[in-house]
Structure formats: structure tokens, C-alpha cells
Amino acid sequence: MPEYQTLLVEQHDKVAHVLINRPEKVNAMNAAFWDEIVQVFGWVDQTDSVRVVVISGAGKHFSAGIDLAMLAQAAAGMTTDIGRNAERIRRNILRLQASFNAIDQCRKPVIAAVHGYCLGGAIDLISACDMRYSTPDAQFSIKEIDMGMAADVGTLQRLPHLIGDGMMRELAYTGRMVDGHEAARIGLVNRTWDSHAELLEGVLALAAEIASKSPLAIRGTKEMIRYSRDHSVEDGLNYIASWNAAMLQSEDLKLAMTAHMSKKSADFAD
Amino acid sequence: MPEYQTLLVEQHDKVAHVLINRPEKVNAMNAAFWDEIVQVFGWVDQTDSVRVVVISGAGKHFSAGIDLAMLAQAAAGMTTDIGRNAERIRRNILRLQASFNAIDQCRKPVIAAVHGYCLGGAIDLISACDMRYSTPDAQFSIKEIDMGMAADVGTLQRLPHLIGDGMMRELAYTGRMVDGHEAARIGLVNRTWDSHAELLEGVLALAAEIASKSPLAIRGTKEMIRYSRDHSVEDGLNYIASWNAAMLQSEDLKLAMTAHMSKKSADFAD
Amino acid sequence: MPEYQTLLVEQHDKVAHVLINRPEKVNAMNAAFWDEIVQVFGWVDQTDSVRVVVISGAGKHFSAGIDLAMLAQAAAGMTTDIGRNAERIRRNILRLQASFNAIDQCRKPVIAAVHGYCLGGAIDLISACDMRYSTPDAQFSIKEIDMGMAADVGTLQRLPHLIGDGMMRELAYTGRMVDGHEAARIGLVNRTWDSHAELLEGVLALAAEIASKSPLAIRGTKEMIRYSRDHSVEDGLNYIASWNAAMLQSEDLKLAMTAHMSKKSADFAD
Amino acid sequence: MPEYQTLLVEQHDKVAHVLINRPEKVNAMNAAFWDEIVQVFGWVDQTDSVRVVVISGAGKHFSAGIDLAMLAQAAAGMTTDIGRNAERIRRNILRLQASFNAIDQCRKPVIAAVHGYCLGGAIDLISACDMRYSTPDAQFSIKEIDMGMAADVGTLQRLPHLIGDGMMRELAYTGRMVDGHEAARIGLVNRTWDSHAELLEGVLALAAEIASKSPLAIRGTKEMIRYSRDHSVEDGLNYIASWNAAMLQSEDLKLAMTAHMSKKSADFAD
Amino acid sequence: MPEYQTLLVEQHDKVAHVLINRPEKVNAMNAAFWDEIVQVFGWVDQTDSVRVVVISGAGKHFSAGIDLAMLAQAAAGMTTDIGRNAERIRRNILRLQASFNAIDQCRKPVIAAVHGYCLGGAIDLISACDMRYSTPDAQFSIKEIDMGMAADVGTLQRLPHLIGDGMMRELAYTGRMVDGHEAARIGLVNRTWDSHAELLEGVLALAAEIASKSPLAIRGTKEMIRYSRDHSVEDGLNYIASWNAAMLQSEDLKLAMTAHMSKKSADFAD
Amino acid sequence: MPEYQTLLVEQHDKVAHVLINRPEKVNAMNAAFWDEIVQVFGWVDQTDSVRVVVISGAGKHFSAGIDLAMLAQAAAGMTTDIGRNAERIRRNILRLQASFNAIDQCRKPVIAAVHGYCLGGAIDLISACDMRYSTPDAQFSIKEIDMGMAADVGTLQRLPHLIGDGMMRELAYTGRMVDGHEAARIGLVNRTWDSHAELLEGVLALAAEIASKSPLAIRGTKEMIRYSRDHSVEDGLNYIASWNAAMLQSEDLKLAMTAHMSKKSADFAD
């Protein structure tokens, strides 16, 4: 199991559980965090025995978002040439975006389990996950607006696909707190569980169920839904036809069919 | 009225009611079905007296999805050249997709009325319809995942526009059953009626109401909503401007205006 | 404060309140209205002291949509050359669209507060706003279908992003009335307030709150959400990175940071 | 070999040669022609022994474009309702477009060999082919402009990809005649041969060479070039990766490798 | 005839000839010029008797590009808030772009006739025209690179459609001079005439020929080519079908047909 | 200077010269090559003193394309599960594509200097470069077709932007050899030099000239041309406006202006 400064990784059978692990800093995202997110999802992508990832926060909260010390440091490195500053800032933002793109592009489903604060950069993070679940007392806020800036690590691009354009703008312009109940009503999370313990139990059970399906079928499904988000229906239909032209010759299909006929569960290769 | 092996077609005034008619096989979609869907919607497109289509299932269920015998037959036809197999599978998938594209592209609104099982390929079918209504005890499931495959006849492309990206992934990864109440809450159906009889009565009344509107206006509206799904707002605005440049010179506009002024209902030409 | 025939403009601190002001005609949109909408949003865009706009209806209703007298006049101007008529109609539609594009493209948030009737062209108008709120007894209807035409001033392009594809088609095909409660449930409005007075008070307070945020951050956020509506996630991420490369060098960021640290509110330059 | 009223089909080994065969009418495209083009390319698509198609004109010319009698007949069928006329015209245009889409979408390469007149609709036709070759005295003209209309069967969409935007507009606005030499210089044809006989011999030899390659590889290549015309580089790269995932497991690859090593020519299955 | 500070407008029958008229400043583009370009093309769009525009330079050159005094003035207006500067610069660039967008979007063809220098902003200008012609000794250069900046008024977006991606980059990275002969070879101009007088005579004759065609057909053709530049072939085909649904009912078609039959020239209404 | 197994890197002032260095194997691309290409362009991107890259072949040829031993090895690793094979092949292709994407996405211009053979994968490589130059006796061929496969490392996506759709298909379907003269005529290379020595001298001089320009301006120009290849003109204009909002505040602009006024050359910071 890989070890990190800011993340704790556990493996439960086929499910990896990644905890953001700076509870004394409300799991604020520092420079090490952004690098380690890329590393851990690289490890996930290459480790065949991991089929689903759950991400949650250690301690009382999910995460308070980007570590302000990191912003202060970036500010300190500015020069007097505005153009060169701009190029440097742009590359920094692209690097932060790359961390959460690693979640979005991970070939395996990633599920966020949120309790307590989920602020600013943490909204960017969960927007890049496949699904989101929370406790009723979770607190969500697009806090960037109160930093005097537009969110730039994915919230404004991915969240409208979850909650619709109208509510999106209210939350992004005001930064107001949304609790778990409202989050479930507007589609920000799929459902809530009553306590942190029940949330983790529920989400890990869901993850285990997904891990029991054909891994090739899950990957194809994720790739198609991601592709459809950015392409026309016609392009999407064409793409799945080419993809399945090979995948339907896989052993998994035969295994699944046989299991289906015999009412047993199939045991798919990694 | 055309006759089919797997479909039963009734016409109520301006509304065609298409029933999937293999109740003894839970309305499973066999080879004849995929061909006849293309034929019946070709007939709908060319028959001026039909203005709206309702599609439902004969017997106790809407449909259990693709007929497994059809998959078995396809599997039996495989050769030892993987490349040629792939091309053949790809063409088969494109052909199945074409059947439901015929619903999506039909110039007239198509409304699904769902009771009982609506599984696998049946979700692909209703995703291609204009609207969906059900009984509370309807049972929806993206069952392809349990066949060891990614759905490839349109669900993954069209359904996210109905239920949002977050719930989409949960249902596609797990294949879990959704009943009519939840379907209404997440946007999969627009509303429920309490029994199968009330559902059919309600949907046929809705269809009759749509059939009383100007057919040119309905077709233009459907074309624009379909186009907007896959294009930018700006492209969409440009397209409707060109379209209406001719349509606003139609007689229907004058008829509708006159009817509106005199508080009577207009009687539009087919 | 600019003065208009069909609009009344008030300014409350940093918030402009635009009232559609033809109550004796149920605020129907006549030729002057379409011109003045462009003018008032041009004034908003250039007036630094205005940061947020609220739009509502004077009298008992929001608006009954386009003035039928205007359509009659357009009809009277038709010649016998259908091609030239078509070009003229097309340009007229593009001109009407430009009026509501001025709302959509306005650099500052525009919030609709709806009570009473909101019909036909009024739906096109509120679809182009950033957010929508209403009383429970507001009455929404895509009435164009009963005029024998497809809506052509933005409803069919923008509304699906708010209420999903399935409900969109039902409302566009039938033109049925939706009240405020249902509007809130399907995402057409973000919430309701119980009376017209409470609605205005609530929306103006919300507008004032948004006006207290960094105006550069609000503009960037609006631009990004609009851009994301029509582009892929990847394009959107790239765009915000280039945008923020300059914006993160702004004074607003420092002001906001300082305010955040000292728990005071920042006072941003216009 | 199928037989047609307006087309003559010959097969030379793996190459089908389709001649437009109304020489007494300068090969003008009548109603039968537009249907038979769909039929012949349907036959080509399904006939494994045909791997490449050459299309040329019988008699002294390639084709003078659409038969004016057909336009006159369409004009005669007009009613007094402009909206219904518009819908009918639109469907007629879509049907004509479908005829040349059958060429564009044909899975096998289609090569045009042009001598004499190639006017109006004939430019639409050759724009939908894979490659074009001519005699020096061929005469090309986008003649639609002299009919008082914008070309609507594909020229304006496909030709800019061949000759660039600047020359495209000159030819479309003026309808001026371009001979074979200029056509070769601007990219409208790939090269010229000096006489009609040499042209046919040269093009049939080229077609035979393409027919000797792996048919799966040729189809994949055509599909990718067509796709790249309408998509981003990134989408194109993703698509070919999925496509080749199956195709690189084909026998053709092994055959080609073996042939390459032994300096012999491979004999691919149809 | 409208009068301007920096432009001279002549009308020859149906052709407007716009001369950039600051010969003592090598026709450098000052603030007045950018405004007047919008005005003159607004006038062209609304003046039915103008059907084609020719644009050339008064004196010895076409234009040396943007007036450096204008840049100096912009530089002088900078504040110390980089974010607000950025927003101001962005709006200024969008305003300059709007000037040449007015050429690109003008409903009537615009032809550039180039002699002498055509540098920097002048390349942006001619890239937005429909066609370009020059003398052999014309001198073209993407001079922005030597100002330490990327061209931002349209060259980098529109020129690749004319000269291909490979030559585009060489010229944009080096700013090297291209003469008329090379310009014709790479597609930057359609052809050359030997002297300034012959160039103007040739281009005006070409413009007059285009002006004799059906103005509706010319506008439709320009709209379709512009649309196809930014859309897929399929979208383009759909668009022209809707467009022509109305346009083919125009009188121009009948006039053109009759003229064609009788071998006379048609006289189209403006 | 970094050292590699398959590449040789020299630095001439601000220009890096990368030589493919397996002359005894005709510079065939083996596994080490594909990795090292990523490394060398990573080094280029991060090394401020390198502003332009030239890539050429050591010995008598540019490159014969992918090493057949690498394909044989890949073939040997196949399992009996076609679905899992497909996923593995797909990932391998994506990895090969990533190597040449590193060239395409490199922030600094990359120029190919080609002599001798340039076959198969080598065409994919030079298609990803900014510009291409060659000797007259260079030999270009899209050789993949003779391997029984469609090219899958970028040729089919990028080359049509250089040589047009018509010639593209001829070369891709036939794999025929094109020499340097023809390559220059069709736009595959920008020009030729007569000998290998003159080619290198000419290309290095060109590279040095580009290296003397503002590096920020060159990067912005490359980014905009790449972006425009895959986006609409309108999107491209919007993007450059946001980009230059920061870049026009750079020191380089002032330096370039001063140099321009004084007719001296500017000395830009890295």
C-alpha cells in the first residue's frame, strides 16, 4: 500500500479508501496534497486489484479547500513582469486542474463520501468524482467568490452537469452554505445517510457492489458517460459501437451470461 | 393499419398507439422487433393523419429488453478473425442503434407509457422517446452492467440529459431497480398515474391534446429541442431563425391567431 | 437614471431594478420594449456603479409575452415574394433574439422576480436571466405552441439547461400552465417567496449580497458558466486558466484575503 | 451485376466502375438517378467482392448536373401554404443530400474520373467522393448561382476542405468555368491525364492498387479521415485508438507483415 | 454616400468601393478607422442598392496596420490594478475584433484589392474578407511578432483556412515578407494582376459580375460557407436544407430559370 | 545536456537540435525512443534557455518509422481474452500517441528537417511538428497501409490540415512515395533546400531567427494556431482576447516597441 504525507490509503478487498489526512488543518489542500492526488490515482489506475475508489476526510470534516498558505507563497513569487507572471499563474492553475483531472479520467469509479465542511477546492474535487453521498449535516460552499476570485479547478465546468444552470449560478455568485438535505434535493449528492459511520458503511457497500461487476464493463460505461458529457449524441453512439466491437468478444460477457442463467454471481478477472 | 409480428398498432383519431406485443416473452426484443420498429416509425413519419405516438407494452410489463436468444445467435456467428468479427459486431450495434434513432428522429412526438419491467434495452428505447410516464410500481434498471457489458443502444448518451450526470452513473454502474416514484423524483419520468389503466388513459389524453396543436409547430419545436441538445445556444438561435423564416408564413399561424382571438379551437390541416 | 417608455428603472445602492412597465397591457412586449431592453442593458454594462440587475413586472403580472399588435403589424408588411419575406422575417427574429442575448451576455448577473403571468416571450426572457425566483401563484406557460409556432427567442435553446430534456418537451408541446411550486420542484425557479412583497424584498436582498462581492470575480464566474454551457469541460478548464492568469493579479484578491483574515467585509472598487 | 435505368455498372476484378448513363441528356440527374445512386452504393457496401468504386460519365461528359425537368416538376407541386411548401422542399433537399451522403459514407473508397462538363449537382457529387482526377479539358462550374440559388447538395460543405476558403468563394459566387489544369493546381483534382482513355486507364489502375490492400485497413483509414474532418485532433486520436484496439487483432495484419518480410504481395480476404 | 475621416466611399452601379484613406500615414489604422469600419459595413448591410464591396488602399499602399500612436495611447491609460487593466484590454481587443467581424459577417461579399504594404492589422483585415487579389509586388507580413505580441484581431483564426497550417506557422513565427507571386501560390490571394490599375479594373469587373447574380443566392452562399468553416458537414447540410426551404420559393429562382432558358441575363430585385 | 540511448541533443545558442540516433537501424522507433521523446520534450518545455527545437535524423535518413521488433513483441504478449487484449492495445496506442502529443503540445516551436526516408511513424511525427522542410530527394510514405492497418499515431488527424482532404486520401490509401519537390507543391513541407547540409544550415538559421523573437509572443501564437485548428473562429477570437489581456502588459511588448522605433534588435528575457 503506498504511503503519503497528506493521504491515508486503505484497501478493503477490491475497494481502495483514500482519506484526506490533515485533520488538524481541516484537511486543507497543501502543495504535497496536489502532487499526491496525482500519485494515488496513478497507483489506482495501474493496480489491477483496485476496482473502485472511495474518497473521504479524516477527522471532523471532508476538507476546507485549498491551503491559504499555498496561495500566499504563490503571491510571494510574483515578479514585476505581468506577462511572465501571467504565464506562470496559468501553468500553476493548469497543474492544479491536472490533479482533479486525474480523478475525472481515472478508469475506475471514484465515490466521494462527505461529512462536515466541503468548501472551495473541495467542491472542485467532488465535482470530478463519479458520485457523491453525504451526511445531512454536511456543509457545502463554493467559497472562492469570497476570496475575490472565480473558481478555477473545475467547479464551474463540471457542477452544472449535476445541479442545473439556475441553481449553479446562485451557489457560485453567493457562496452560500448548502446542507446535505438540500444537496440531495438539487442533485449535488445522490442521497444522504444519517451519521458519518452509516455514510462510510453505506458508501463502502455500494463500492463493493460496483467492484463485483465486470471491470471492463464498468470502465467502458465510465468512458462513455464522460465522453457523452462533451459530445453530441451521434458522436457518442458511434464511439460506443467501436468500443464494444472489441469488448463484446471478451470473456466477461460469457461469464456474466452464464452467471445470469444460473442465478449465481460471476467472478471476473481483474 | 400496418400489421407486425412483434408490434400491435392502434389508431385513436390522430394518435397511434404502438404496443410491444410479445407478452409471453415479457416483450423481449427479438430480431423481428428491431426491424419492425424501423418500419412502424417509417409509417408514422409518412402518414399525415398520425400526429403523436404512444408506445407501451402488452401484458404485465413494458419490456425486459433485448432477447437473449438474439445475443446467443450473434455469438454463434463469430469467426476466428477478431478484426472481421469486430467490424461485424460494430455494424450490428449501429443497426440496433438505428432502430431507436428512428424514434429520436421521428418528426412526431413519441411518448412512452411504462408499467412493470423496463429493463436494459427498454431503457435505451424510452431514452429515445420525447417524454416518459409510468405507474408507481414500474421497475426500471440499466441491466446491461449485469450482462458484463456497457449499454450500447443509446442509454449512456441520452439519459444524462434527463436525470443529470451524478444519478446517471449510480444507475449505470449498479443496475439497481428504480420504481416509478423515484423515477418521477429524478426526472426519468415526468409523472406517474396510479394504475395501468389510468396511465394509458392519462397518456392518451395528453397525446390527443398535443395532436390538436399545429403539426408544423410541434415538428419545429421537436427539431429545435433535439438540435439544442447537441449544439451551442448561439447555433440553436440561428437555426430557429432560419427555420421560422418560412414557417411563420404558414396558414397554421393565421388559424391559431383567429382561434385564439375567438376563444375557439383551431382545426389544423395534417 | 435613464428613462424609457416601457421600462422603469430604479437604483438601490449597487442594484438596478428594472420594471416592465405597461401594466394596463399585462406588460406585453411591444416594439419599443424590444429596443429599450437593448438600451437598458447597454446602460447597465457601461455603468460601473451597477453590479446586479433585478427584473420584475409592474402591476399584477410579470408579462404576457409579445404584444400581438406587433405580430399583426409584421404580418401586414409581407410582400408576395416568399424568399424576400423569409429574409425579412429571419432578420426580425434575429433582432428579437438580440434583445434577450443582451441579458444573457450582460457582464453583470440578472435576476428575474416573477409574479402573476409569465407567458410566451416572457419565458424566453427569464430563460436568458442568471436566476429566477417567484411567488407560489406565478403562472408560467410556453404559450407559443398555441399561436401555431415554435418559440424562437431563446426558450427552446436555454430552458433545457434548467429543467432537463424530458419536462422541457412536455411544457413546450402542450403549453400547459405551471405554478410557482412546480416551477421550484423542476428547477425553473430556484425558490419561491409567499407574496409579491416578500419576493421583491428577498430578491433585492440576494442581489445586494451578490453586489457586495468582488465585481471582477462575479464577472469571471458568469463568463465561465456561460462558456461551459456551450463547450467541453476541457475547453472550459483551459479558458478559466487563461482568464485567471491576469485576474489573480488584481487588487480584489488581496482585499478579499485581508477581509477574510480580519473577518471584516471588503469594499471593492467598481 | 445490378441493372439500372440511369447507371451502368461494370466490375473489373475487385473494382466496380459506375457510369452515369444518360449521354443523350449530358448525363443530367433525373429522379431515377437520385434513387439509383442510393441503390448502387447500398449494393457496393454489401458486396464483399467490391473493394473500390470508380465513377465516370458515359459519352462526352461527366454530367451537366440536376435535370431541369425535375426542378420544374417540383415547382408544379407547390401549394398555396408557404409553411407546408417549406417543409416539403426541406424534405426533398434532405433526400437529394442523402443520395450523395451514400457516397461519402460508403465504407469503400470512391474515385471520380471527370472529362467534359462537370456542372452544378455534378460538383456536389464529386465533392462527396474520396478523390478526383480529370482530363485537362474537363470543365468544372458551381452553376447553381446562375439558377438563382445557393448550392444545397453538399458543395458548400465539402469543397472548402479540398480547395481552401478563398478560392471556394470565388468559384461559388461567380460560377466561372475551371479547366482540368487549374483544378489540379488548386486541389480540386489530384492530377490530370491527357485523354479520356488515359484517364480511365490511370484511375482504374489506381483503384486496382487500392483494392489490393487490406480492406479492413482501407475502411478504417476512410472512417478516420472522414471523422477528422468534423472533429478535433484529440477526439480523432481517441477514436482511432478504440478502433484499432480490435482491428490490430485481425488476420490482415499478420498477412501483411508476412508479405512485407518476404517481399511478396498479400492476398487479403474480402 | 456616407462620408468618413479615414475612408473614402465610391459607388459604381451596384458595387461600393471603400478606400482606406490616410495615404500620408501609409493608411495606418487609427481609432477613427476602427469605428468607421463598423459604420461603413453597417451602411453596406442596410443599403439594398449595394451588392458587393471592394476594399483597397489610397496612395501607394494597402495599409501598414494598426497606428502605433493608438497603442501608445492605450498603454498610457493603464492603472496599477492588473486585473482591472486586463479586463479593459480584453474589452478593447474584443472591440477591435468586432470591426473586422463586421466584414466577416457582412451579408454581401467583400473583396480586398492589395498593392504595396499589407502589414500586421491589414492581414487581420483581409483575412476577414471573402476573397483577396493583389499586384505581384504587394508585400504581406504578419508583423505582430515583431511587436512582441501574438496577433489578436483574427489572423491566427481565419488565415489557416486559406493557406494551410504549415505555411501559417512559418509566416506567423517569422513575420517574413511574402510578395504577390508567392501569395498566389500558397492561396493567400486568388490571383494577381500586373499593375495597380489593372488590379482595380480586374477586381471591379469581378465585383460587377457577382453583383449581377441573385442577391438572395449570393447571401445564402456566403452564409453557408461561413457556417461550414465552423461546423460539421452534417450540420451544414441540415442548415442549407432549412434555409433553402424558404429561398427556393423566391422570385429570383423563376427569373434565373427564365433567363437561363432564353439565354438572356436576369435583372434581380435588390 | 541530457543524454539518451536513441536521441542525440545539441544546443546551438537558443536552439536545441534533436537527432534521432539509430542510423544503423534507419532510425527505426523502438520502445526506448517513444519514452525518450516524452523526456526530451519535457526537458525542452522546462529549459528556459531553449526557445526552438529542430528535429532531424542522424545518418542517411530521417526515420523508417516504428521498429517492427516492437510490434512483434506486442503481438507476443496477447492473451486469449479478446476484450482484455483490446484494452491493452488501446492503452498502448494512447501511449504512443502521447509521445507525439508531447511535440504538438510543446510550448516552443518544433521544426522537422527531413532527408532520405520518412516512412510510417515518421509521418506521424512530422505531422505533429510546427513546420517541415526537406531535401528534394526526401522520400515520404504513409506506409501503415502496407502493414495492413490504419495509421494510429496522428497522421490521419493532423495531416489533412496541411495537404487538404483530396491528396490526403490518395497518399493514405496507396502509401505511394512522395519526393521533396511534390511535398513542397502540396504543402507537406514549406520548401526544400538542395542538399542535406544546406537543409540543416537553412533550418537552423530559420530556428535562430524565431528564437530571437519574444518567447511569450511565440508561445501565444503557437497556442492560438493549435486552438484554432480544433475550434470555431468565434471561440478562437474570444480566447486570444483573454490571453492577450495579460500578455499585453508584459515587458516584451515595451522592449519590442523600443527596438522597432530605434531599428535595433530587442534582447528578450527567457
From TrEMBL, chains A, B, C, D, E, F:
Main localization of the protein described in the UniProt heading: other
Is Isomerase there in the keyword field? yes
- Protein name as annotated: Crotonase/enoyl-CoA hydratase family protein
What cellular-component terms does GO give this entry? cytoplasm
Q: Which organism is it from?
A: Pseudomonas jilinensis
Please give the start and end residues of each transmembrane region: none
Keyword Flavoprotein among record annotations:
no
Localization, per the record, is:
Peroxisome
Which keywords belong to this entry? Acetylation, Fatty acid metabolism, Isomerase, Lipid metabolism, Peroxisome
